[in-house]
Amino acid sequence: MLFATLCAGCNQPGESLCHRCRFSLAAAASQVSDTGIIAALPFEGVARQVVHGLKYRNRRQVARQLARLMVRRMRVGSVDVVTWAPTSGARARRRGYDQAELLARAIAAELRVPCRRLLYRCHGVAAQTGHTRAERLRGPSFRARAAHQRLRVLLVDDVVTTGATLAAARDALLLAGVGSVACVAAAATPSARQAMKPAIRRTAAMASAGSSGTNTPRMPTPSAAATLEATSSRNAVRSGSAPSLARAS
Ligand SMILES: [Zn+2]
In 10 A of CB 27, how many CB atoms? Predict the structure, then answer.
């Protein structure tokens, strides 16, 4: 029993995610922010335990299951590359891995597109955990590698707390020149969810619109809404008024 696998959701011996907890995750509702960030799960109950397990208890096996769920719940079209909002270097080093990167790599594998590191944390900005709400709202700052103009990026993070991290990471990518950025997170905290609305499930008509005539890998959800969101926020970045979940909450 010493090396038995425990469920990341309920700690019962057996699979890395037991049938009951899997069902519980599948039943939980996804939400979307007014800036287009999709959060696949609420950061509470079993979902909170599972994401915590990935983040703090070295339960890396659940990254694949979470990634599948995130892919199923995304409302974005074709993407060229998947990237992630990197955790601060010190924390990732202490932990031995970056949970956002694990999720991004698992999602890229699901979508059969490359996963690349495009973002770096700017120095002197500490991790989000343990900071005051005002500090968290300001968010970390990122710099991004220069990218070609038509690149469609899927940006991944683990938990949306204020939306500031994803907003800052997306702005850095847009300023570096990418064509569009769609954002997806595994979960959103209850306070973040107050500023979000239920994500509408894809319809058949949207599905065919999202996969027409290109040979790029298909994603299970449509492109129009997310691309519009990203394009509009790119314009907003240029005019210095990027909308963010943080401001809305
Ligand atoms: Zn379980």
Answer: 8
Q: Is the pLDDT of residue 36 over 80?
A: yes
Question: Measured in angstroms, how far is the CA atom of residue 120 from the centroid of ligand 1?
Answer: 35
**What is the CA(114)–ligand 1 centre distance, in A?**
31
Q: Residue 65 C-alpha to ligand 1 middle, in angstroms?
A: 13
Whether 219 has a pLDDT exceeding 90, the answer reads: no
Q: At residue 117, does pLDDT exceed 90? A: yes
Distance 117 CA to ligand 1 centre (A): 32
Tokens representing 193? 């969810």
Residue 105 Cα distances to 6, 51, 65, 169, angstroms: 23, 16, 12, 17
**C-alpha dihedral, 133 to 160 to 187 to 3, nearest 10°:** -80
What does pTM read for this prediction? 0.75
